[in-house]
Amino acid sequence: MNARAQILARIRGAVTGVPDVEVPRDYRGATGPGAGTAEPRLIDLLAERLRDYRAIVHVVPEAEIASVVREALARRAAARLVVPDGLPSAWLRPPEGEAVPYETVPYETVGDDPELSAGDLDRVDGVITGCAAAIAETGTIVLDAGPGQGRRALTLLPDYHLCVVRADQVVAGVPDAVAVLAAERPLTWISGPSATSDIELDRVEGVHGPRTLEVVIST
Asked: N or C: which end of the chain has fewer CB within 10 A?
């Protein structure tokens, strides 16, 4: 028996017969009644905090998401983009009435079924996802591997992450996010592009995840 197995066996023995304890989850949130519809101040605060983290941020009406996405990808000259299952197709399709037909969108979309290898993800130009929630106070985007988000590797290996946040997903603080998130889901909390610094405080981006985070917040 290795050390891990010994430790787990001791824990199991210690809790055998112990009654379940209810853990209180009624944390005090900041939004109060009516949570679920982001006030303009929360969207403004989220955008401000994300920019503080050096993310690129756009706050646009929902009808303009596809246009902003296309312009963002054009600026990066992105040729291959990972698109998780369940991502709204309207976010990639040019708005109705524009002269650019859908089939001429200048990038290739790549699915994740079968799952892409680490090498495949390293070779794409980026990934576009939705999110499960966004926290205004901390400038944090939370993914839970739900529809339009994909597994965690999709947003950790590519160098560029383009994330679309709906207005109704913006909450005020961390307790408000915990209240709407499912604890059993694989949660990824993202506060700006991946970055680290050494003892001299020299900031290096892209070490543990995307070097560039671009966020489109719909109003």
From this structure: N
**Full residue range of the structural domain in which residue 78 is found:** 37-218
| Inter-CA distances, 173 with 86, 160, 179, 190, Å | 27, 26, 10, 14
Residue of 41, 42, 89 whose CA lies nearest to 65: 89
Element (H, E) at 3: helix 3-15
Edge to edge, what strands does the sheet with 56-60 contain? 56-60, 212-218, 160-165, 126-129, 80-82, 108-110
Domain contains 13: no
pLDDT digits (tens, 9 = 90+) for 134-178: 999 999 999 999 999 999 999 999 999 999 999 999 999 999 999
Query: Residue 68's domain is classified under what CATH number?
Result: 3.40.50.10420
Span 42-46, mean pLDDT?
Answer: 94
Q: What is the pLDDT of residue 195?
A: 73
pTM above 0.85, yes or no: no
96 vs 99: CA distance, rounded Å = 9
Q: What's the number of domains the chain is made of?
A: 1
